[in-house]
Amino acid sequence: MTLDLSSLTAPQVRDAIAAKEITAAEAVAAAYARIERVEGGVHAFNQLTPELANAAAARIDAMVAAGEELPPLAGVPVAFKDNMNLIGTRTTCSSKILANYESVYDCTAVRRMLDAGAVPVGKCNMDEFAFGSSTENSAFGVTHNPWDLDRVPGGSSGGSAAAVSAGMAVLTLGSDTGGSIRQPGALTGTVAMKPTYGRVSRYGIVAFASSLDQIGPFSKTVEECAMALNVICGKDPMDATSVERPAEDFTATLGEGVRGLRVGVVTDLLELEGCDPAVRAQVLKAADTFASLGAEVGEAQLPATQYGLPAYYIIGPAEASSNLARFDGIRYGYRVPDAEDVMDLYMRSRAEGFGPESIRRIMLGTYALSAGYYDAYYGQAQKVRTLIIRDFARAFADYDVLLTPTSPTTAFKIGEKATDPVAMYLSDVYTIPVNLAGIPAVSIPCGLVDGLPVGLQLMGAHFAESTLLRAAAAFEAESAFDMTPPIARTTAAV
Length: 494
What we know:
The protein is of the alpha/beta class and 494 residues long. The chain is 38% helix and 13% strand. The chain contains 16 helices and 11 strands. Strands 1-3-2-4-6-5-10-11-9-7-8 form an 11-stranded mixed β-sheet, with helices on both faces. A hairpin with a 2-residue loop joins β10 (441-449) and β11. α2 (24-42) packs antiparallel against α3, α7 runs antiparallel to α16 and α10 (308-323) packs across α13.
């Protein structure tokens, strides 16, 4: 059986291995063959892990030979954002300050994927410390969008999104603090989900903003997204913010359709300045699709969410300033070799180790938390956060699912917004309110504009992942978009 990972889903890979049509070792070989052909043009990876992948594949093939029952992701090639620890890999956060840091423990979500039989092919590029919306802020180079190599894949989990889009991995994990899973999912035409805050353990991920961060999957299909959530969700004693919930099979209700489901189009967000009219049109067309499938479609309002962006860029940097204080050249990470004293060591190690966007956000956060400004900035931002949470609660009293674009535009050119931080921050205007409220949301492809993918964001109440995935699956089945990018249709090396 000739393997082409760009056209195979996770259940297809697992079933082929279970049926002895292919081996897990052959699935790994196919992943690396694909990587060899297209990675040069995309740069989705910071590190490849063939030893780990081959060892994991050997364990799966031994289970097949022994006639043992296979785990749910047996033999499926996966990759992880480079802010997730995995023993045997470097965890760099795409930063010079952690360029040589070797993981000494495993991220819980990563370990759960591997325990479910997945095989790890590598660690994915990202914006440094997850600060960015384009994966241009990496110390190891820019990641390119598989749909157009001159455009960004979104960020900060751009490498994870690009790896799935280009067919180099079947599933990947990213992290989402203000849209860093969903926005790159939209720009690369992949399914990308941020679960409810606390659904997935944050243990083992290098923290950006601890009250906002959440791990979630990228996939080609909604079913695969649900399969990954089945694996990574659940209480973890190593993370006090992870919640105790009964185990759910998120695949169980995918086929139930949306008849009778209440779907609200968030019209005030659709009218925000900066939303491409063509993107808006695709979202309204998607709403019509839900209506045609039997959903009750209406208009919803979230007035306080227009203030989500400024609130986020106080809360996020404030928490980042605290979390990143540990990277000081003392215990681990980059350290200047010729410091005159401890203060010189701190200042120069951090100034040389962190990139410009990291420095900008650390300074913003430190200022917002400083004496005399805490109440005026951080305190006010938290009050806005409360208003946003209340807006969502009111909306979900009337609707089961809320619709917005995921990103106000399709993928923009590399360098187009690199010198304008505010324009870059506006890329996350639709995704940030979800993180502030702690609710789940998924981005699914809803069409193309000028040959580039458009993402539709579905938002739900806390712990409503099953409802969101059910709605996403119904839309996916009805629309049946071909989200195979040009680079994944070629066998030539790029």
